């Protein structure tokens, strides 16, 4: 039976069916939780059209205004490789993130071509800030589709954007942000109600994994999503999986050949599965559990209360007052709230299942593999945000959510992001910049092994030359880096030689850092190195 809404106090009837009215006004009367629009929304089209653009603009501007100075070690390595490459070459290939350096190189050269006098690290930070803001827009679209609430979707998208670890890495140079972006696009494509596009989903997933291979753990959730979109077309999940596998294998094989000049299956497998030699992969049941729990807290909240030392100003005082006020508003709103029984429709239940599978795959893997690396958990942070949205469906009023998001954003900004945007809060960077005054162009520095501190100091002293300490003659006037000093001190002859042939010690030594350089006075009697 066709039911119409009769005209009431109007001169002209609006003879649309009830479902059509629901669609137009954004009302979902079959769900009594906060996910329903309880009031008439006069601008549903305007919200849908401009909200993502406004969201992107606000987040991108905030990210770009406060880039981190506490650089992620991989970012320095990427930036150095990009600047060392005279063109697109095999030197840019990395087995864990196949195309990141290529994309970074192109963006860096683009900025230089239009006259921007920036270094590669800055270019990578800019592109990550923009891509991260785009991630928030895609997540907002996913939340809007799943939760049916503009307000809650916007709050959770902002909570995602300004969560501690995501915010920090969004203003840094790393491969996680672009990889998660294409994971989000892939997840959007497999949402219930969307037209099944297994081949397009395979392509976007492949791009995600080409940026970082840890994206592979999202395969179960995406394959299940493709299947649930149309259960009659059971082969869709197979098409997706096979296509993605073919693209990935072909890319790895091709770039391996490009990087090595040959092809060996065993060597290809080792190259593909390689990881940092200093990674602690030992399994300890209790400590891994502690790392996992701590990692989930640090995903959302970070920083230290004493990090504002030396950075106080009137604007910071105002923000601190705002933080206290938002916490009070949240607590008061929470005390007045009450819990109801959530009512989810079948499509929403499917999204929840997909989010659980997405999260579960990573949680299990990261419990055994490097659980101390909180940044790996960025790959399933969007799934946690989606599940949080469904958990809030049992809350009658979601008004305190905005106060909570404001409080979390202010806390993360004040105690993490703002301090990290200052050079003096990262002693190794301040030390590296100080050495610019010590080392003239062409200064030769010997190091023992590759390490993050040496890479940072080398990058911010681009006029220096770095050489591995081998059985070659040491040049007079050169400098020795920490690992080279340690290598020489490991033998009695080397220790005695250091005492009599070096001077001008420069060091940064405390509980967190150990960086030391000494200058070679003369290189006589260094035959023991041979």
Q: Can I get a quick summary?
A:
This protein is mainly alpha-helical. It has two domains: 44-423, no CATH class; 427-529, no CATH class.
Describe the structure.
With 530 residues, this protein is mainly α. It folds into two domains: 380 residues, no CATH class; 103 residues, no CATH class. The protein has 21 helices and five strands. It has a five-stranded mixed β-sheet, with helices on both faces. Helix 5 runs parallel beside helix 8 and helix 14 runs antiparallel to helix 17.
How are the secondary structure elements laid out?
Blueprint (H helix, E strand, L loop, with lengths): L17 H8 L18 H22 L7 H12 L15 H14 L6 H28 L2 H12 L2 H7 L5 H14 L8 H14 L7 H11 L5 H26 L4 H8 L12 H16 L13 H23 L9 H23 L12 H11 L8 H21 L6 H8 L9 E4 L4 H8 L5 E4 L10 E2 L1 H8 L2 H10 E8 L4 E7 L10
Parallel strand pairs: 1-2, 1-3
Antiparallel strand pairs: 3-5, 4-5
Helix pairs in contact: 2-5, 3-4, 3-19, 4-5, 5-6, 5-8, 5-16, 6-16, 6-17, 8-9, 9-11, 10-11, 10-15, 13-15, 14-17, 15-16, 18-19, 20-21
